[in-house]
Write a structure and sequence with these properties.
This protein has 344 residues and is mainly α. It is built from 13 helices and no strands. The chain has a domain at 43-273. The protein is globular, with a radius of gyration of 22 Å.
Length: 344
């Protein structure tokens, strides 16, 4: 008799656990279903390609932030570093016959040169962020908030150049734009180059997180920094390297974003860090640290990008979209914290 009474309770507990573990996915799928019902034409190969292309740079950014979140940190400067890299790379890769070049005497550069310059800049700012957090013990939120403001100031100074003033940096070299806007195949099965770049970066990060000492140390630091230190992990070095890798990923994403859009301003990348954090959390990265996977982050970005694109597709007011994004972030973090408290 007792066993029969306990069975419904066990079933209810299983259902409750399933709903708790998958609540954010259920909410997002319901939102996606509503978009498709309102506008059935949303489901098309053209929209799929557009979503994949737009999601590709976000995947790269989210993988950078994801590693920091796993290590019990955060990074609010990511979007501004994307913007800085976009502006710098665009200024170095304008067409030689463009009338309003920032550097008229600069010859045509190989694409990889500005990319390497921007990656070096991103790693430098990542080094500063990591040092502030790991060495000087500044809370990640405050350290990266300050860096966000600093980088925006630097980008705006660079962008507001004489004699043209704060005008969008356009007239980009065709090869540079093709680098991001091109497709591997023709027709319905055309695959954007951006998807290939994001896939390569995701593969590298998967190996780094799962097959290297750095990856193991990252999860150890995120799970319990004190225990990791006692077990011989160099917590300071691990955190600094993770922030530097993140900076490199933001910079690479920024150069791709400039080429994808075809221009850059000092507001390029604005708020990208919030989308990346939300996508990472939706993809299973714990804000409490120590938990997260590359496939989960990629999935989270794709889901989030489908919702973003879908809301634009059906004509939802952009300000309302900010409200939806904010709610998704709060709900995702609230669910994550409840899971953490339940485990404790």
């Amino acid at each position: 008799m007792a066993a029969k009474e306990l069975a419904p309770r066990r079933d209810a507990k299983r259902i409750s656990t399933f709903l708790m573990n998958n609540a954010i996915y259920i909410i997002l799928l319901a939102l996606l279903a509503a978009i498709i019902i309102i506008e059935p034409q949303f489901v098309s190969m053209t929209n799929l390609r557009n979503i994949l292309a737009q999601a590709s740079t976000r995947v790269i950014i989210a993988l950078g932030i994801g590693g920091i979140l796993i290590a019990q940190g955060t990074d609010l400067s990511a979007g501004r570093l994307v913007g800085l890299s976009a502006v710098v790379s665009a200024s170095m890769l304008q067409a030689v016959d463009y009338a309003y070049r920032m550097y008229p005497a600069l010859p045509k550069l190989p694409i990889f040169v500005p990319i390497l310059v921007c990656v070096a800049i991103g790693m430098l700012f990542g080094l500063i962020n990591g040092t502030a957090v790991a060495v000087f013990k500044v809370p990640p939120f405050i350290a990266t908030l300050g860096m966000m403001v600093i980088v925006y100031g630097l980008t705006s100074i660079y962008f507001d150049r004489p004699p043209y003033g704060a005008q969008p940096i356009g007239g980009l070299d065709k090869d540079f734009m093709e680098f991001a806007q091109g497709y591997l195949f023709k027709g319905d099965f055309a695959l954007p180059y951006l998807v290939i770049y994001a896939t390569i970066v995701a593969g590298i990060m998967w190996v780094l997180w799962n097959k290297t000492r750095l990856g193991k140390n990252m999860y150890a630091v995120g799970g319990n920094p004190e225990a990791a230190m006692v077990s011989g992990v160099n917590v300071t070095k691990t955190l600094v390297i993770i922030y530097m890798i993140a900076g490199a990923l933001y910079a690479f994403a920024g150069t791709l974003e400039a080429a994808r859009i075809g221009s850059a301003t000092n507001n390029t990348g604005n708020m990208y860090e919030l989308d990346a954090i939300a996508a990472a959390v939706v993809g299973g990265v714990s804000t409490s640290g120590g938990i997260g996977t590359v496939p989960g982050i990629v999935t989270g970005v794709l889901i989030f990008q489908v919702i973003n694109y879908g809301l634009n597709f059906i004509g939802v007011n952009p300000y309302v979209q900010y409200i939806v994004k904010g709610l998704i972030i709060v709900v995702a973090v609230a669910i994550d914290i409840r899971k953490y408290l339940k485990k404790k």
